[in-house]
């Protein structure tokens, strides 16, 4: 059951989605154009501060409410959620691990959307194995000097501040002890080298970032202590995985909704295709996946909101919901026949967007490994 506040927020967002977003998605998506006016409305809704505590200007929403917002938006255009999600993961690193001065300096500007950005972890040579990163920060007086390349960074072009994972000690063993996380605002030495082209997840920019003798003040090192960056970056990924799972539910739901409608309108052999058993089997499986994925997301969000460790539950939700989006989008395409392959309907977009959720915030191969490790750790023989 939703709280009255939650209902109010979800209703307002749903009205905006139907009135202003749905009619424009196809055009913006196919042109791969950044949705400036939608970003302005998302600022007004306070979405850039959705999970930032109220004392720093955010809405202070629990992960449970936040994930419902993400699902609702993803039912209409999944790309929009990417504009504020990795931004909020950056904010959560500051909230959880930043000094009081860092919280005061950054969180209100993140919450208003004045300063937007995301996470810069991945490099051309490594994504899953983050401890192999090569971007280097070297202390120089009151600053650090950073050199390296980050790639696939969401909001890389339109964002202006990133939680940047670097190596501060190349010799550290284990390797993660030599890693640190900085808040890096764009400035001299920090450039966008190129926009990356994708099959889906259009409208939101993914970019390669170059750091060439980029100077950042030591006060921008999150927590002002070297060697904790890996822990700080991974700490935010639980919320990130709940978010990706919530997106998966949104795309899976959208594929189901379109299919249920189309299956009643399309007739073959004298009856609507929803009366053919082969189509009924698909719809039954699709609806069950949606429901199971939603419950897994709710469960992970509940544990996260209780302040408990939820890497296993967030991993299960992320794994299952993203696979549900992939399977439902494929089935929706089959149910729509040739129209599913047309760029005039939305089904083809779900089909192009869904695979991203199996890769982002830790691949689904890694999610299953995380789940298994936690299973063993929680159940010693
Ligand atoms: C559209 C998009 C947006 C993104 N946004 C961001 C962003 O904002 N910030 C950011 O930092 N990154 C971002 N990424 C990068 C994303 O997080 C990485 O792509 C992801 O972590 C996987 O890393 P990789 O691509 O280097 O794959 P690799 O690590 O090279 O993995 C390749 C394959 O090997 C498998 N594999 C790797 N190691 C193991 C293992 N130990 N056991 C079993 N299988 C393994 C993987 O599951 C995968 O199937 C984005 C990516 C995309 C496509």
Radius of gyration over C-alpha positions, nearest whole angstrom: 21 Å
Low-confidence parts: none
Strand order of the largest sheet: 2-3-7-6
Strand content: 5-15%
What is the assigned CATH homologous superfamily of the largest domain? Butyryl-CoA Dehydrogenase, subunit A, domain 3
Ligand names: flavin-adenine dinucleotide
Q: Mean pLDDT, nearest integer?
A: 96
Q: How many helical elements?
A: 10
Give an overview of the whole structure.
The protein has 381 residues and is α+β, with helices and mostly antiparallel strands. The protein has 3 domains: 109 residues, Acyl-CoA dehydrogenase/oxidase, N-terminal domain (Butyryl-Coa Dehydrogenase, subunit A, domain 1, Orthogonal Bundle), CATH 1.10.540.10; 111 residues, Beta Barrel (Butyryl-CoA Dehydrogenase, subunit A, domain 2); 148 residues, Up-down Bundle (Butyryl-CoA Dehydrogenase, subunit A, domain 3). It has 10 helices and 9 strands. The strands form 3 sheets. The chain has a 4-stranded antiparallel beta sheet with strand order 2-3-7-6, covered by helices on one side. Strand 8 and strand 9 form a beta hairpin. It starts with a helix and ends with a helix. The model has no long low-confidence stretch (mean pLDDT 96). The site of flavin-adenine dinucleotide has 23 residues, from strand 1, strand 3, helix 9 and helix 10.
């Amino acid at each position: 059951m939703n709280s009255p506040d939650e209902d109010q927020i979800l209703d307002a967002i749903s009205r905006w989605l139907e009135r202003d977003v749905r009619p424009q998605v196809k055009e913006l998506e196919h042109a791969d154009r950044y949705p400036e006016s939608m970003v302005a409305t998302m600022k007004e809704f306070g979405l850039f501060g959705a999970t930032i505590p109220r004392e720093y200007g955010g809405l202070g929403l629990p992960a449970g409410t936040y994930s419902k917002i993400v699902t609702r938006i993803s039912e209409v255009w999944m790309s929009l959620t990417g504009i504020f999600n990795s931004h909020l993961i950056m904010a959560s690193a500051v909230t959880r691990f930043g000094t009081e001065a860092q919280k005061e300096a950054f969180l209100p500007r993140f919450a208003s959307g004045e300063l937007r950005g995301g996470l810069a972890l991945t490099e051309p040579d490594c994504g899953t194995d983050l401890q192999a990163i090569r971007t280097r920060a070297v202390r120089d007086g009151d600053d650090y000097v950073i050199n390296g390349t980050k790639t696939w960074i969401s909001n890389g072009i339109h964002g202006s501040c990133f939680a940047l994972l670097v190596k501060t000690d190349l010799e550290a063993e284990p390797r993660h002890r030599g890693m640190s996380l900085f808040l890096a605002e764009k400035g001299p030495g920090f450039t966008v080298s190129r926009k990356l082209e994708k099959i889906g997840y259009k409208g939101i920019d993914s970019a390669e970032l170059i750091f060439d003798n980029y100077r950042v003040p030591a006060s921008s090192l999150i927590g002002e202590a070297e060697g904790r960056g890996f822990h700080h970056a991974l700490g935010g990924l639980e919320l990130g995985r709940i978010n990706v799972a919530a997106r998966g539910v949104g795309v899976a739901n959208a594929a189901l909704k379109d299919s249920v409608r189309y299956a009643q309108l399309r007739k073959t052999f004298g009856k609507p295709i929803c009366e053919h058993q082969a189509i009924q089997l698909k719809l039954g499986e699709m609806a069950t996946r949606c429901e199971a994925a939603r419950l897994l997301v709710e469960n992970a969000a509940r544990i996260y909101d209780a302040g408990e460790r939820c890497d296993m539950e967030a991993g299960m939700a992320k794994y299952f919901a993203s696979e549900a989006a992939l399977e439902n989008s494929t089935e929706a395409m089959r149910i729509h026949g040739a129209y599913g392959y047309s760029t005039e309907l939305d089904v083809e977009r779900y089909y192009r967007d869904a695979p991203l959720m199996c890769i982002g915030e830790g691949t689904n191969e890694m999610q299953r490994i995380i789940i298994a490790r936690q299973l063993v750790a929680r159940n010693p023989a």
